[in-house]
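2024-03-11 09:14:02 DEBUG pipeline.ingest accepted 1 chain
2024-03-11 09:14:02 DEBUG pipeline.ingest length=450
2024-03-11 09:14:03 DEBUG pipeline.predict start
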Amino acid sequence: MKSLDKQRIKLVKGKKEYFKGIGKIKFEGRKSDNPFSFKWYNEKQKVGGKSMKDHFRFAIAYWHTFCGTGGDPFGAPTKKFPWDENTNAIERAKDKMDAAFEFITKIGAPYYCFHDVDMVDEGATLAETERRLEIMTDYALEKQKKSGVKLLWGTANLFSHPRYMNGAATNPDFNVVAYAGGQVKNALDATIKLGGENYVFWGGREGYLSLLNTNMKKEIDNFARFLHAAKDYARSQGFKGTFFIEPKPCEPSKHQYDYDAATVIAFLREYDLMNDFKLNLEFNHATLAGHTMAHEMQVAANAGLLGSVDANRGDYQNGWDTDQFPNDLYELTECMLVFLQAGGLKGGGINFDAKTRRNSTDLDDIFHAHIGGMDVFARALLIANDVLKESKYVELMKTRYTSFSRGNGAKFAKGKLGLEDLSRIATKNGEPEVRSGKQEMFENIINQYI
């Protein structure tokens, strides 16, 4: 381990070392049998003219990694973290932050992400929560300066507290909307103070359980007004970053207003929010919406709104948001094809919005999970880059659409043909020739390079 790495880790450990016996995780290559090493993720390796570190901008999710204790709808928590032992809310929050920055520094991620109430427990009043955030953001600033770790984005938890059982910005009670506004203001202030590069809105309960008691238009209109107000406030405070909306189709609501990428893009266009907002896409949410993540990424990229990614996966035998760590190489390779051809993410990064399994109760399991996730992304990126540079993938894709690059096809693509023109051409040409899509050949190319 380099002495500089040792110094940085020592500076962010805090009062005690939580992950004892584990040092800085280094790249050792695929032949290494050291479980505490990267086999594929070499942060300095250039792919397509950019280092892996700059491609991915990996971030650690504060909530799952340091707050997720293994509880689920069918059972109590299974994990007892040593940073949760102090009974004083502020001291407990500082212990958790000590552990967080120790882990983030050792795993070598350049960023982290948080909800307001991940950083410190919510107070009895909005003012008390604001005071607690002030204390903890002061502490976080020290940690960031000592470690070099940055804040990728912040957000507010507007879904866990009972006050938000009918939504936050879309709640039928104005007093709840106002409280949500106060909470977002505090979260924005914290994000700006910590130099956060972006801010995320995830409408955890911005939807409905029944249309019988829901004025959908009023709720969606209010959601847009809320986002405009938040955007205007942040800009007035000097925030230069991007706002992200994270789509999700259902769970906990029967139907959520940010259902998928296409729905969110239509919403942003309708309410004049395209200039300030992009999308933060999550793998498991794409699955729940009946899409692949590659589809969601392509939809966002087509609109120039591929902002950031929450990395995880669902269980195809389980119909809910399991937030497992990513390990499907084929799925990720398809996503990295979209990623590279789109020129990467617009402001965001790859945030591991994933949690170790309920029965993974050792602290070193957290390292194994993130090492595996970072490695599978790196491997998929290398494969996708080889496919684009070495195979006939790009050429085959272009060939399939060559009829739009010449003759009448080119005229149509430029908007120079009307419906009568199309009818005249069809009458002259007769029945079109059936042309194969070569799907299996495309699939074989991916498999060949994996």
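2024-03-11 09:14:41 DEBUG pipeline.report The longest helix spans residues 364-390.
2024-03-11 09:14:41 DEBUG pipeline.predict end
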